[in-house]
Structures are given as structure tokens and as C-alpha cells.
Amino acid sequence: MVIQAKTAAQGRREPMGVETLSILLIEDNNGDARLIREMLLTYAEWEIQWSHVVTLREGLDALDTEFYDTILLDLGLPDSDGLETLRQVNERAPNTAILVLTGHSDQKLGVRAVADGAQDYLVKGEIEGRLLVRAIRYAIERTRAEYAMRQQTQTIAAIEERQRIARELHDNVSQTLFVCRSMGEAALRHLESNPAYARELLEETNRLTAAALAEMRILLLELRPTAMARANIQQLFEQYVKAFAVRRGTEVHLEIGDLAPLPEGVQIAFYRIMQEALNNIIKHAQAKQVDVTVKDGGGYVALSVNDDGRGFDLAATQATSMGLSIIRERAEAIDAELDIVSHPGEGTQIRVRWMKTEL
Questions:
Q1: CB-based contact 53:59 (threshold 8 Å)
Q2: What distance in Å separates the CA atoms of residue 285 and residue 301, rounded to the nearest whole number?
Q3: Does the pLDDT of residue 187 top 80, yes or no?
Q4: Which member of 80, 144, 233, 351 lies 3.0 to 4.6 Å from 56 by CB, making a disulfide possible if both were Cys?
Q5: pTM greater than 0.85
């Protein structure tokens, strides 16, 4: 049911910059729904487009076809109950302000709902018109501010990623190609006087060219995050490990078990952690062998990167290491457990464990 209703205050400009506010109420008690609507008609400063459904399924269908400024959500519905209701709505409308409606005995559930993504909760039976309007206003303002911050963070991250790729092109690919050209010219000069030496130069040129090509493929893939998300994780890791091993001359053993497709954010986080771990090995470890493993542990998926390098004092290094900070941030972003073990002269182990969630 969709009702458009102009409030008594329709002539005033809405402070949040919209003339019409669209509200979706998911509530199976028609009496509560009618009371909430009457409060909004009486106290709201906006023109309201009002939609009311009584089941979660109807609510999700409505969210598939309409954008709403706010959602008033009862957690006890005929076809869903508790925080799972919030999870599904939040997943379907991640940028919409959600206010949870609870009963007197469910206030603890309301607090948990706020911790799980709702902007606020209201107790049915204690809702007053001005309080309802104020809660909706603040919820929308906070949601919009959070969305703007996420957009800004994503923009900064995209710029930093492109800068990193530009550095990789300059520091690795372009320098490798310059070396290849120099070695090719040297091979031509020695082709007749010292053919054996010329052959050695050409073989090394061929090896370096293959490394540059593998690196270019990785960088082109990284410029398209959607392609990284769609790629098979084994293919994704194999491409990077191959480029790493050829360029650095370090033996890398890669083992990936049978894995179901991972969520996009998890797959990219695993890739970035592995990438940063290998970069740290290049810069600091002087390792001869690296083992990279991804396996399904049943209720979790684990990534480990182990090297036989010189190791380090974790207590003295952790606070100042940019590489370790990046790894920690990537793990925290997907709520994964991170364990780093290292001692001078004994190599380093980086283990990440992401717990599976019900889909």
C-alpha cells in the first residue's frame, strides 16, 4: 500500500534538502502502522510518500523497485524474526536509514540492532510524534554523512591504488624493459665474436621479458576490481605468484584447496594481504622459499604466507611497519582473525582466518 500525504507544514522547505520523504514501514500490526502514519502526518515537516507492507518478503520486493529515505522495521514479522530480519533489509538497502521498532520486552534486541547497522530503535507504545520525526531526521542525516565518508574513503583508496600501480610500472616493468633493451643490444654486439655469451644474454632477456609480461597482466587486472572479483581465486593467485617468482628469483610454493566462491570483499582482501606479504618478503626477508596456502577449514577459510627469511622482532617492528599495518587493515575490513609470528633468523608466518557467514 502506498499513500502520498502532504503534511500541514508542506509550505516550508525541508531542512535536509528534499521536498518529499519516502518512508517504508515493514510492520504486521495494522494498528501500530496507522498510529505511526498519523504521527507523521501531524508532526512531520515534509511531504511524505508512505509505503506500508506487513511481511519481510513484501519489504524486500519493495526495496528492489524503490529507493526509500528511511525504513521503519519491526523485527517480529510473520515470515522473519530477530536480527536476521535487519540483516536482510540492510543487505538489500545498505545506504538507507533503518529505525527498528521493538516491544517493551525487546529493548536489548534494539540495542543489538543498532550495533548491527540500524541507526536507532524505538519502543512501540512509547513512541511520541515529535520523537519519531526527530529520530527519522537524525537517522537520515547520519546515514547520508556515513555514505559521504565512505565515498570519500573509496575515492582516496582508488587514487592511492592507481599511484601504487604507476610506481609498479615505473619501478618494475619499465626498468625491466630498459634492461632487456640493453641486454639485447649487447647480445647483438657479441653475436659473432662470442656467440655463447650472446646466447646467455638473449636467454636472460627472454626470462626478464616473460616477467615483465606477467607483471603487466597483473597490473591490468588490478586496474579492474570487478575483474578481480570475478576471477577464480586460484588463477588470481597463480598470476601474481608467477610474476613474483620470475622477477625475484624466489621459489614460491602455492597450494589452494577446493574452495567455494568467496564474497568479493573477502577474495580481494586475501589477494591484497598475500600481495603485501610478498612485497615485505622482497624488501626485508631475503627468503629463498615462500609457501602460500589457501584452504577451506569447514567453518572458515584460511590464508597463510610463510617464508624462510631472516625474520624480525615483532614487538619492535609492528608499530612502525607500514606493510604490517596494511595487512592488519585488510584483515579487519573483513572481520578476519590475523596472526603474525616472527623471530630473528627464523622466518615469518602470516595467517589469516575468515569465518564463514550464513548467506
A1: yes
A2: 26
A3: yes
A4: 80
A5: no
